[in-house]
Amino acid sequence: MTTHRFTVNVPNPTAQSASVQLRLEPATRQDFDWLPREFPKADIEVIDTGLALDPCAEEGKPILKLKLEPFTSIDIHVVVNTAPPKKPGVAGFHLVDRRKGKDVGGVFLVCMDPPFVEPVSQTVSTPNPCPATLARDLYAILPGDDPSKPSNAKPIQPGENLELVAQITNPTGKSLKDTQVYLEHLGASNVEFMPRTWNIGTLGKGDVFYATWPIRTTAWQTGSFETSIVVVSQDLDPVRLNCKISLMLRNR
Amino acid sequence: MSAQLRIQDGTPVWVSNSIVPSKDTVVSPWGSPRLAAVNVNSTDVFVYVKVENPGTEDIGLCDCVNVGPWSPPVTFQGFVDDANATVTERKAALTLTLSPREDTVFWPGYGTIVNQSPVSPRRAWGWSADGRFLAYINARDSTFWAFATQDVGLPNGTTIRQGLLGFVQLPTFQWTNADFGWAGSRAAFALVPNAPDRQLYALCPLVPRLFSLFGFLDGASILASVFVSPCASAIALPPLSRLISGGRATFNLFSTLAGTAIPFRQNNAPIPDIAPTGTGFSITTQTHGAMGVVVGTGGGTTVLVDDPDCTFVGGGIRVSIDRVKASTLPTANLGVAHVGDAVIGTLRQNETGWVQVPNQNGWANQSERHWCLLAQAYTVDGTTIPRPWNGQATNPPPFPIANENCAQRNIEILP
Hints:
The structure holds two protein chains of two kinds.
Chain A: E1 2-12, E2 18-26, E3 46-52, E4 63-68, E5 72-82, E6 89-99, E7 102-113, E8 123-124, E9 133-134, E10 139-141, E11 161-169, E12 176-185, E13 192-193, E14 196-203, E15 208-216, E16 223-232, E17 239-247
Antiparallel strand pairs in A: 1-5, 2-4, 2-6, 3-5, 6-7, 9-11, 10-11, 11-15, 12-14, 12-16, 13-15, 16-17
Chain B: E1 19-22, E2 25-26, E3 38-39, E4 46-52, E5 68-69, E6 74-75, E7 78-81, E8 87-91, E9 94-98, E10 103-107, E11 110-115, E12 122-127, E13 133-138, E14 143-148, E15 152-153, E16 159-160, E17 163-169, E18 180-183, E19 187-194, E20 197-203, E21 211-218, E22 227-228, E23 234-237, H1 241-244, E24 252-255, E25 260-262, E26 265-266, E27 269-270, E28 282-285, E29 293-298, E30 301-305, E31 312-314, E32 317-325, E33 337-344, E34 352-357, E35 370-379, E36 406-414
Parallel strand pairs in B: 3-36
Antiparallel strand pairs in B: 1-4, 4-34, 5-28, 6-18, 7-12, 8-9, 9-10, 10-11, 12-13, 13-14, 14-17, 15-16, 18-19, 19-20, 20-21, 22-23, 23-24, 24-25, 26-27, 28-29, 29-30, 32-33, 32-35, 35-36
């Protein structure tokens, strides 16, 4: 037998006492849609389930009633005992919180036997991608400088107000119509940017558009960060263009 | 028309399938990621959020629909040259009153005298196209006044308060209302002699520096010589005739949003000055985007430049993710930790897109494995669809899970 334990906090954030009724409801097949296709969704045999206040309990009650004082919370423990599986499988339960005659919330608990082994990450492609690309790596310039001149590029250092430049180009022989580009994010960096969408319109073969976004660096942070710029064009799927930016120490 | 954003709730509400932490590299915002396990040391996990526009309004697009030839400013509607004139005009809660005793502008709780007794008989005034601003001048001292008829929210989140915005004293000259005009609701102009030329002053109510000198026109020019873009975000001045023979004449472009001169651009790169090539100037917007404006430089020659109205559109949609320790109440906030933010530029009616949100603050789990991701989507301008929740406030209120643009998902952060 395998015992699966979960600790769940049950809060009362109000100024009045709260009477809480907790119960377990089995999950449905749809609740496991997020599992990778290759992971078997066979049910593992559940021997019993229960709710307990004792973290060491081997079993518990199907329904737990509590009274919580104002602004307090309590940890309750969910115990699920399953039979040794003949093949990998999954069982899930919703711990449902009911107050004043209404279900007010819950938590989704999943038991897997054996434990979930995450599949390798993959690239999710798209059937009809917009072929626009970056003509060169991103660079930063002073606000107002000519974005078409990479010689104006400045290092990105703490406390700077700059403009990030992305040279968007069409490497194909077919013009791209109604092209737009926006900056989705600057990765795990703490650089702030002003969101804007550029309406490039028609981007012919070899044309370059110099998209810019004002950026501001705040706290001291260094390193290389992966950014995401999205290009959209008529009758084509939008695509993410990824490129790194580097944050440097300020020279003393 | 109503603007709406939706992040679909799950069934039950604490397991939204529109919030997916994933290690997948999803090439397109139209592609769906697969769920990944998160541990405290993960550095390659994005949180993807599916955002829908179920409303009747496109979000993030250029709101300028007018194209065509650039036209002159609209001359001030109001003009009197009579000390005994009596006029009362009102827009929103702001009232302009002209009387033999004095001219006043009143708004709730406040007022100002703009023409003291004995009144200067010559006055001109004009309301902006949207009725949100008033410009007024009298001939006593040629003080050019600017007022807001109501509170006006700006795209950067600040507000211009109803009432007096400011005033400037112009050079004194014998004027009529034909020397003043509005470019949409973006700028009021005064064309003032400065021999041998005329100077164009601009009052731009949306700009912190309210008054600017925009440039020069030929001495015999009238306001009809000024080209205003279809949505009034820019004006262009034709070259000075007296400089053409010397090869120094150029077209000049000014932004009514910045209150300064700006360069003409092609694919967002500034280009050298545009010189005249003959007679018969024109400027026409064909499309709202890069290379969408045709400048007729004279003699049939044309130059394509970027449209200043809409080559870029500020704003869009921001998606914010926070996480809290999981509990049975979706609205309880136990230890809010910010995950990150990302942007979608545009979302048309009935469109859907997945936004890739990076984790800017790590996955430390404070020895607690069960967490809940909280996602919210709102417009960057802060007003079309306001931010529903600030988890970083000192005492944040409950997460508004009932909002259509909010959703949550339980996850586990493994040690």
